[in-house]
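HUMAN: Spend a minute on the protein record below and explain its fold to me.
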Amino acid sequence: MTLVSKSLVREIAQKCQDYGIGVFEPVSPQTIADRTIWVGELPDSAVQAIWLVESPSPPPHNYVDTEYTVIDFWVRSPNTDQAHALLELVYNTFHRKYSYDTANWHISFSRALGSIVDVDRDIEGGKLFRLSVQFICRNLNNVS
């Protein structure tokens, strides 16, 4: 039996691919080197990529089936301008976007929780930036 994750962060990563921000699910195992979107952590082999990390978020609403999930979008690139431009694309895609769906979630509204943050360079010299986005959403599988 194969388990399929219904995690919002994975579905937002898929949305990023759908919007042309990068490649999350390569079409075949032979094209795994083309992957540029990761969830949770970034492998050492990724030179220029974006990864999504679930951030501490407020609790779900007590009476209405609504969650307020925050996802941090991190970008690593050897080129500062390219790294910043990639997060600008994420910002322009998700900031103040309303009423859209993923496979298992309805997102009422999403918004950036600030501007793009310059985090510095990593040990290999890659430029790092971060953007936090809050998704006000409801799991479509919940019955309320």
Summary: The two ends are 28 Å apart (CA to CA). The first helix runs from residue 8 to 18.
